């Protein structure tokens, strides 16, 4: 995932930090203070700065199966030579579906199709 830093989100984040009473974070241990402040800053950053997911870690280990990625689309291409290749293709499809589920990405099944 990549954070998308827009001017609006940066200003919102600045406002959150400007309203913070940083004195409440002072601890006896410098290490503990740094940890608490870092956690606090990350908490606001995660709430304010939107993220974008990329599919470059979506791969297949099957021979002659390829995942091709476009800016707004992902294609699973399988070069099959006969009916014996269908089970491994279905495994690749299942793995892609599971990867999408794990990464909270929706599949547009109306665009799904195949040419044999």
Question: How would you describe this protein?
Answer:
The model has no long low-confidence stretch (mean pLDDT 82). This protein has 116 residues and is of the alpha+beta class. It has three helices and four strands. Helix 1 (7-18) packs across helix 2 (30-48). The longest helix has 19 residues, at 30-48. Strand 3 and strand 4 (73-78) form a beta hairpin. It has a two-stranded antiparallel sheet. The protein has two domains: 2-52, no CATH class; 55-116, no CATH class. The chain is elongated.
Main beta-sheet annotation: 2 strands, antiparallel
Helix run count: 3
Quick check: average pLDDT?
82
Radius of gyration: 22 Å
Oligomer: single chain
Can you count the beta strands? 4
List keywords for this structure.
116 residues, single chain, alpha+beta, 4 strands, 3 helices, two-stranded antiparallel sheet, elongated, 14% strand
Can you describe this structure in just a few lines?
Helices cover 41% and strands 14% of the residues. The chain has 116 residues and is an alpha+beta fold.
Produce the secondary structure layout.
Blueprint: E1 2-3, H1 7-18, H2 30-48, E2 51-52, E3 65-70, E4 73-78, H3 86-102
Antiparallel strand pairs: 1-2, 3-4
